[in-house]
Design goal:
The structure holds two protein chains of two kinds.
Chain A: H1 2-27, E1 40-44, E2 47-50, H2 51-62, H3 71-94, H4 101-121, H5 126-135, E3 145-153, H6 156-168, H7 173-178, E4 182-183, E5 191-192, H8 193-200, H9 202-209, E6 215-216, E7 220-222, E8 225-235, H10 242-272, H11 279-282
Chain B: H1 2-30, H2 40-57, H3 59-62, H4 89-98, H5 133-146, H6 153-163, H7 170-173, H8 200-209, H9 224-237
Helix pairs in contact in B: 1-2, 1-9, 2-9, 4-9, 5-6, 5-8
The chains are: A alpha+beta, B mainly alpha.
Chain lengths: 283, 241
């Protein structure tokens, strides 16, 4: 009786094992299957066509979801996707990447993006970001703001006299008329540092940058006359604290991580590759 | 004998659970994602599996309850305000799969907020010109007025001209400043702030320095069923489940 029961259990176990093996065999990825996995809508030479891509294509082409799509619409999308997969597979067989520069560029780009996508999945900790910010603190600052006037004088004497007057009071139209000065009109009322630099030129900006509110420069000789800079307001760039800079710190941190990963991947590919270089090129 | 019996029974139960679970997983994957919430069995199954996955992969940024963090520009997922798409499970699923500015070729990466206080505000669009400090103050006043807050009327008027003119803001945020969820441009009229506390300073910082948050692509990192389960869970966080 006992041995009979043992055989029954043995048989049940074997049957169960077979069922599980069969299920795995017919549904697992990477093996030849006879059943389309639930996440796909078709298998083309064992290459899956994703269900979500299919649904998205239905939405893009016809603006409908699966429940509202007609049989023709479903068939059209499915046929298009099968056709694309067949042509991609044929392209691989023909090795079009070896001859078509567009395919080569697309492949290089896709691999680079894949490496970058790997890098961004890893979320750095706050302490890692803080350490990165501390190391590259100089990157995280706002733009300075300046309100400056650029006056042009016909002679050095008038410029020197005007500078002395401007040290005592802000410029007035009367004062400028008295010394025959004109506003170059290059800068607007208030500008960011980079705009002042573009408008005044690098050398005049360098002088203006070091002046504080209400300060006037010494006369500066230029081809078009003698320039005098009067700074009404100069707000120097303020360093962002970690909280304000965090978004940019994270971006920079990730970009660095992507760069490292790409370099590492390239080194790995070179290491495992068998690259032969012609003697005449190598020399 | 008793041990064999127990072992056989355990094996049978495990196999049954495995088959039952994979059967539900298949049904979940084959179901129309936007109708899962109408099937309580499937939804419960998805939620029970989606919650731990969310905690493992998403909670470090979005918070365990999907509350987000405006100090870090992480959107809340529990407020019913959807930056990308309209909050359908299928929309959420696509975001989880391909990410936002994730470097995946199919990621959402059309909208990048330019840094208007930089010589070249946008690395992609050379036509976008920088703005002056006064321009940025005017835009902030315009946004304050658009949100129904007290604002300098003259500055807001100048800001409105910038918004639909040289600033080019309308291009992403739409002429009425209500945003465009097709590209992830936030509604600027609703006081839901992605970055900062909505103060003049934080709005000014966003306009000056630009914004471009990132969500990784989870395709090939979480399986198709897992992605759908997380999508159903995220959908439920907004109270829409």
């Amino acid at each position: 009786m006992n041995s009979h029961r043992s055989f029954v259990f043995l048989g049940c176990g074997a049957l169960l094992g077979l069922l599980m093996a069969g299920y795995s065999l017919f549904t697992a990825r990477g093996t030849s299957t006879l059943i389309v996995p639930p996440e796909d809508v078709a298998l083309v030479n064992q290459q899956p066509i994703s269900r979500s891509d299919y649904l998205q294509q239905l939405q893009t082409l016809f603006g409908v979801d699966l429940a509202h799509a007609t049989k023709e619409q479903r068939q059209k999308v499915l046929n298009d996707m099968i056709r694309e997969e067949l042509f991609v597979q044929r392209g691989k067989e023909l090795d079009v990447a070896s001859t078509d520069p567009d395919v080569r560029a697309a492949l290089v780009n896709a691999v680079e993006l894949e490496i970058a996508a790997d890098a961004v999945t890893a979320q750095p900790t706050e302490s890692q970001l803080q350490a990165y910010y501390n190391t590259h603190r100089e990157r995280y600052a706002g733009e300075g703001i300046m309100s400056v006037r650029d006056y042009v004088f016909p002679s050095g004497e008038s410029a020197v006299a005007a500078v002395e007057a401007l040290k005592l009071s802000a410029p007035t139209p009367a004062l400028l008329t008295q010394w025959h000065a004109s506003d170059s009109g290059k800068v607007a009322d208030e500008e960011f540092y980079f705009a002042v630099k573009i408008h005044l030129g690098e050398s005049l900006f360098e002088i203006a940058r070091h002046l504080s509110d209400g300060e006037v420069s010494a006369p500066i000789a230029r081809a078009d006359g003698i320039h005098v800079l009067y700074v009404f307001k100069n707000r120097r760039p303020l360093a962002f604290d970690f909280a304000a800079a965090r978004d940019h710190v994270l971006t920079d941190y990730r970009n660095d991580a992507i760069g490292h990963l790409r370099t590492g991947d390239e080194a790995f590919l070179r290491k495992r590759a068998n690259v032969l270089i012609a003697d005449d090129v190598h020399q | 004998m008793r041990i064999s019996l127990l072992l056989a029974a355990s094996a049978c139960i495990m196999a049954a659970v495995l088959l039952y679970s994979s059967g539900r997983e298949s049904r979940l994957l084959r179901a129309d994602p936007d109708s899962i919430s109408r099937n309580s069995t499937l939804e419960t199954f998805a939620l029970s599996r989606g919650a731990p996955l969310f905690e493992l992969h998403c909670a470090s940024c979005h918070g365990v309850q999907g509350e987000g963090d405006s100090r870090r520009g992480v959107p809340a997922l529990n407020d019913g305000d959807w930056l990308y798409g309209s909050g359908l499970v299928s929309d959420i699923e696509q975001v989880i799969k391909f990410g936002i500015r994730s470097y995946h070729p199919r990621a959402w990466n059309l909208a990048i907020m330019p840094a208007y206080a930089r010589p070249r505000p946008s690395s992609r669009d050379g036509k976008i010109a920088p703005l002056s400090p006064q321009d940025i103050r005017d835009l902030v006043e315009f946004l304050y007025r658009a949100q129904g807050r007290t604002a300098d009327a003259a500055a807001a008027l100048r800001g409105a001209a910038l918004f639909t003119g040289v600033g080019g803001c309308y291009d992403c945020h739409a002429v009425d400043a209500k945003g465009d969820s097709a590209i992830g441009a936030p509604d600027l009229t609703d006081r839901i702030t992605l970055y900062g506390d909505g103060s003049r300073e934080s709005l000014s910082l966003s306009i000056s320095q630009g914004r471009h948050g990132l969500c990784p692509a989870w395709v090939n990192r979480i399986g198709p069923a897992g992605i759908r389960e997380v999508a159903v869970f995220v959908h439920s966080l907004s109270g829409a489940g």
